[in-house]
Amino acid sequence: MKRFLPVLILCCNWMPAAAQDLVITNARILDGTGTDIDRGTMVVRGGRIVSVTAGPATAEGLPVIDANGMTLMPGFIDAHRHIINGDSDQWFREQSVERMQEFLEAGYTTLMSGGGPVPGIVQLQQKIVDGELAGPRIITSGRVDPGNFKTEELARAEVGKMAAAGVEIIKARIDESDGNRELLAAIVDEAKKYNLEVMVHAVTVPAMRSAITAGAGKLVHTTNNSWLTNEEAQLVRDAGIENLTTAGFAVPTFGVFNDDNIPTFRDGSPWPEGILDTGSNAAGEKVVNARTLWDNGVTLGFGTDTGYLPLDGLAHELRALNLMFSPLDIVKLMGPNTAAFIDMSDEIGTLEAGKIADMVLVDGDPLKLIFNLLNVVVVIQGGTVVVDHRAQQ
User: For the domain that residue 356 is a member of, what is the CATH number?
Assistant: First the structure.
C-alpha cells in the first residue's frame, strides 16, 4: 500500500456521518473473491463489514434489509471517469447535486478522476468528505502531459503545482509520435518526490512501451490501433503495472444508436466509416487486447473514460466487455481488480470482514446476465443507505 498515501488517509477516515449499523438478509452474495453464496447474511457496524455468512446470522436489534433474493455485490468503482465538465464554479452551482446523485443511482461508490480540472476536482472531493454534497468518494488527479512542455524543468514544475494543489495522482499522455519518453520519465521521477504515482494515457503499443520504460505505474487505457502480443502483455505484467479497460469507445459492433436508430460510435462518427478513424475508434483491437492482458496475468480494472450519464457509460462498457469476458471475470474486474488499480484493496472491492461497507443490491443474477448490474435497487456507501428503490418494485 505504498502508493496514494494522501488518498488512503482520506478514504480510511471517510465515512458518512450517519454510518449505520444494519443487517442484510436473504441475499444472493457475490463477494468479489469468487465466493457465491445463494442465501446469505451480512452484518455491518460503524460503516464496516463485520461478517458475511451463508444462511442467517445473529444481529439482534439491528435494522434489517430483506434482500428478497437480490444479489449483493461490492459497490461499483469507475477508475477513469471525467466528472466535472466545463467551468468548475458553474458546474458546482448548476449540476453537482444532480450529477453526483446520478453516480449513486447507477451503483458507483468510488470514482477516480481521469484528469479533471484542478482545483475543482479537489474541491469536489472535500465537499463529499465534509458531507456538503452526496456522492461517491473521489480520488483526484491532475494532468501533466509531456507534449505540453518544451523542457524537463517546466514539466517538473507542473508536477509540483499539481502536488501543491492536493491531487493524488498525476495523469500523463504519451503518443507514439511524441518522442517524449524522456520528458515522461522526468515527470515520473518528479512525482515520486511528492509520493505521487503517474498513470499514463497510452493507446498504442509503442506508446505503452514508452510508458513502461519511463517507469509509469499505471496505464489508464487498453491499447488499440494495433494488436498486442502475449510477449508485450507480459512486459506490462512483469513491470507490475495495472491497466484499465476503457473498451467501450472502440467497439464498432456496439455503437451508440442515434434518434433515427442509426448506429454510430461513441464520439458520433458514423458506422462503418468510423472504423478507419484511427484517432478515436478501432476495429475491435481494444477488447481483444484487453483479453490478452488478462490472460497474461495483468491486473485489469474497470474504467469507462466517459463524461456522460453514468448508467449509460456503465451499460456501454459492459456491452464491450461482454464480448471477451465471462460474467464472473467482469465481477472480478470491476471489484477487486479496480480496487487494486486505485490502491484501495485493503478497504473496498470485495465484501469481507473489516472492509468499508460499500455495496449494491441488484435485481437478478449478474452471473446469468451481466446486464443485471444495471438493475440497481439499493446502494450502501460506508454503511449508509444512499439509494433505496425497494418501494418502487
Answer: 2.30.40.10
- Residue range(s) defining the domain that contains residue 206: 75-349
Q: Are residues 59 and 99 in the same domain?
A: no
Across the chain, the runs of DSSP E, i.e. the strands, are 22-30, 36-45, 48-54, 64-66, 71-74, 76-81, 108-113, 137-139, 142-143, 169-173, 197-201, 218-219, 242-244, 256-257, 263-264, 300-301, 359-362, 376-381, 384-388
Q: How far apart are CA 38 and CA 205, in angstroms?
A: 42
Cis peptide before 119 (omega within 30 of 0): yes
| pLDDT of 266 | 65
Same domain membership, residue 203 and residue 136? yes
Q: How confident is the model at residue 236 (pLDDT cuts 50, 70, 90)?
A: very high
Local structure of residue 273 (DSSP, 8 states): G
pLDDT digits (tens, 9 = 90+) for 94-143: 999 999 999 999 999 999 999 889 999 999 999 999 999 999 999 999 99
Cell numbers for 16: 458518512
Give the whole-angstrom CA distance, residue 171 versus residue 169.
7
Q: How far apart are the first and last CA of the chain?
A: 41
**One domain, residues 125 and 160:** yes
For residue 193, how many other CB atoms are within 10 A of its CB?
11
Considering its fold, how many domains does the chain have in total? 2
- One domain, residues 386 and 286: no
pLDDT digits (tens, 9 = 90+) for 364-392: 999 999 999 999 999 999 999 999 999 77
